Amino acid sequence: MIALITGASGGIGSAAARRLANDGYTVVLHYNTQQDRAEALAAELRGHAVSADLSSIEEIDRMVGDVTRKFGKIDLLVNNAGASLTGLFQDITDEDADRLFRINVGGTLHTTKRVLPLMLRAQHGCIIHVSSVWGEVGAACEVHYSASKAAIIGFTKALAKEVGPSGIRVNCVSPGVIDTKMNQAHSEETMRTLAEETPLSRIGHAEEVAAAIGFLASEQARFITGQVLPVNGGFNI
Q1: Are strands 228-231 and 168-175 parallel, antiparallel or unpaired?
Q2: What is the pLDDT of residues 5-29, one digit of tens each?
Q3: How far is the C-alpha of 222 from the C-alpha of 203, rounded, in Å?
Q4: What is the distance between the alpha carbons of residues 237 and 190, in angstroms, rounded to a whole number?
Q5: pLDDT band at 191 (very low <50, low <70, confident <90, very high)
Q6: 48-51: which pairs have CB atoms within 8 A and are 24 or more residues apart?
Q7: If pLDDT is split at 50, 70 and 90, which confidence band does 194 have?
Q8: How far apart are CA 170 and CA 133, in angstroms?
């Protein structure tokens, strides 16, 4: 089984790659800038690393084409890659907002669109998107990020209905506050406050998100589609 994981050099992506490799997948690890990290992880997991700027449709075409030529199929797509953007809504430049949406929304939609024909021909496949708790409840000073992640949730539900008759499942994992490089931009005080606001009183770990991805990719979840699985310590209850 072949799994393509976007953003596989990051915290959640690399944890997901390890989990899926342990579950028997041959993992294809997408990266944009962190070549050394992605290639080292690919070597460790006996997988394959591929590069692409997911804000570019042409680069997505090339990436999926490379994977298809090498492996002939993609059984599992994990759309994990994403960018963040913090600041007051009116202070965010149009250029920064457009790039965020090209990566978070466009990258997910365009990658899925190019992988989907392989799954449709096989009448089998699994697609898992990674959204965010902010896509469910919103966050001040992360309005654009919240909107982009909310779009992923809507995409999950709609696509699941469209491709379900073809035997393809589409689900979404929605992490809460996780100990990743993206969240290291926050101050220690902010992270403490977020931990206090989480009913389980701590920050989550990338491996816990990866476990949810592994479950949704497994046969145990074969009757689950169009769902959003929160991994957030109860943050949004």
Answers
A1: parallel
A2: 999 998 999 999 999 999 999 999 9
A3: 30
A4: 20
A5: confident
A6: 49/8
A7: confident
A8: 18
Q: Cβ(125)–Cβ(167) under 8 Å?
A: yes
CA dihedral 212, 56, 135, 143 (to 10 degrees): 150
31 is catalytic: no
Identify whether the C-beta of residue 1 lies closer than 8 Å to the C-beta of residue 25. Answer: yes
Cβ(81)–Cβ(28) below 8 Å: no
Give the span between the Cα atoms of 87 and 229, in whole angstroms.
27
Residue 153 phi/psi, 5° resolution? Answer: -65, -45
Token digits of residue 189? 């005080």
Name the residue type at position 155.
F
- Average per-residue pLDDT in the chain? 94
pLDDT tens digits, one per residue of 46-82:
999 999 999 999 999 999 999 999 999 999 999 999 9
Query: Which entry of 31, 101, 145, 235 is annotated as an active-site residue?
Result: 145
CA 196 – CA 190 distance, rounded (Å): 10
As given in the structure block, the two tokens for residue 100 are: 């965020």
Q: What is the DSSP letter of 19?
A: H
Which phi-psi region, left, alpha or beta, contains residue 201 (left: φ > 0; alpha: ψ -120 to 50)?
left
What is the pTM (predicted TM-score) of this model? Answer: 0.94
